[in-house]
Sequence to fold (220 residues):
Amino acid sequence: MAHPTPRGRPAKAVITCGHDTSPHKGRGLCRLCYIRRRRDGTLHEYPLLPPPLILCGHPERKHRGHGLCQECYQREYTRLQREQIARRKRAWRAQRQREYHQRNKHLSKYKRLRHAQRCKARYNLSGERYEEAYKAQKGLCAICRRPGRSAPGSIAKQNVRPLDVDHDHACCPRGKKGCGRCFRGLLCGKCNRALGGFEDNIDFLRGAVAYLERWATRRQ
Fold:
């Protein structure tokens, strides 16, 4: 169980009876010496230890532990508990994902079918046509020429994002199913989002190129 980490723990109680290996009971005495002095009636000869320091900024409140008052101690305890639970959940999810991928290596056929169904439903694009475009581009983005995940089947072993389908939004606006005739090529996620940000406007793209070239010459 997690306990609050002190921001400035008070000094440990000093055992003055000489039994340093025994746990402290009170008034600088170990448990056995404390009981003996109380039976003998000499316990009052040993002064009380100073009260613990409250380092959380609330000296008027009762000390709870580790230099914290009750409210600050509970708040710190709850925070540490949440962090510990979150760490356990992240580790559990990662372990489950590893076990799932290890268990389902044989599902490449299902992945091929699912990818083909997604292309057909969104862009009216068959899996064979996607495969042909992927092979024609040699598995690279049509703009930046960086590799993406391969076509269904041949690339299912790689844990990379597949190339996105790019189509002409003037023909089929966003949110509507593509007709399949306006399919332009395969792009990586970054380039596909960049084209969407520039709204497929050639003038905007030329302005961006001129802007970067202007600043590149200034750096030189």
